[in-house]
Amino acid sequence: MILLNLSHPLTAEQRQQIETLAGQPITRLIERMAQFDLERPFAEQVITLVESLGLAPAEWQRSPLLVNLPSLNFGAAATLAELHGRCGYFPPIVRLRPVSGSLPPRYEVAEIVNLQGLRDAARKRRG
Fold it and tell me: Are the C-beta atoms of residues 111 and 95 closer than 8 Å to each other?
């Protein structure tokens, strides 16, 4: 699977946790730490960020993707919209959480969230 990391660098331990939860190896890791300028429109920044990942149109639609989203909520939302447009679905995302009591602070992989599954289930609740 291709892991798109748009946040802080992942440790070897976190990458192993991701592979375990996903049930498949990370065959390609693309890292771009998103830095958003709060004074500029996010749409153009997200397009630039996603373009910098270097995936071909066919890769967006056919490759198994997993995403570690940017930390900033507005940037994460805009990034998801861009990714959905390119993939045709919501890619699964990595959720990290702090390790309780760790000094210095450390983070572990909490889960892989199946966003498309959440969306599909929500459609059934529309009524």
Answer: yes
